Amino acid sequence: MQTNNVTLAMVKSNEEIKTLIDTANHNLEVMGYTEHGVRHVSFVSRATSEILFELGYDARMVELGAIAGWIHDIGNAVNRRQHGISGAVMTYQILTRMGMLPAEIALIVSAIGNHEEEVGIPVNPICAALIIADKSDAHRSRVRKDKFNLNDIHDRVNLSIKKNFITVDKEHKTIKLFIYMNEISSPVEYMQIYMSRIILCEKAAATMGCSFELIINGNAVNRRQDISVSEAMLKEGDFIGKRVEYQTKEK
Length: 251
Ligand SMILES: [Fe+2]
Ligand SMILES: [Fe+2]
Known about the structure:
Elements: H1 8-12, H2 15-31, H3 38-54, H4 59-71, H5 83-98, H6 102-113, H7 125-135, H8 153-160, E1 161-169, E2 174-181, H9 187-207, E3 211-216, E4 219-220, H10 229-250
Parallel strand pairs: 2-3
Antiparallel strand pairs: 1-2, 3-4
Helix pairs in contact: 3-4, 3-7, 4-6, 4-7, 5-6, 6-7, 7-9
This protein binds fe (ii) ion (2 copies).
One fe (ii) ion binds next to helix 3.
């Protein structure tokens, strides 16, 4: 029987989904990837639903976002490659068996099938919020204890991130990702890994009518949509002036 009452609690307690999350996390551990288990999917589920809630989407969309976030990485139980697509196909079958309405399943599989930067396009608000939530989860708690390697850029970047959070300003239509990292790594190393993901986050925010800002250690890294061309030119002029003055002093 089909119902629209499949909840996050039901998804969380589903044995099939639990097993797939654990298997995905195990497989990625064997391959040397950072944590993708319950900690990661909890963060992504919560952040996806909070983004949708703060932007004013209705309660059911918020819950569907939370469900998509919880399930989004189960495709890694099959293979890392194209895990968004394999995960979406698996999700379709599981949620159908659980009795979710086809229209709701369609939103969730569209989101999961498009959450990775290689092939992903933010096709609906759940997908957009999921992308931002997923790509925001860089943190030292994702590094696997006793297994990290400081020669690995992913471990270095994650280990260096002490704090990460997202803010949503509905009035100014801005979503910000704040990252605080220490000297174990650097913003340049972060961008080496995250460049294509941040560009996807910008597209995702635009899908929801917002701009996306990445702020590392208090500094805006990507283009701020709220700065006009004339403001930017003025800032550039200030900079050139200071630089000339500095060079004059050096002589
Ligand atoms: Fe993923
Ligand atoms: Fe993920």
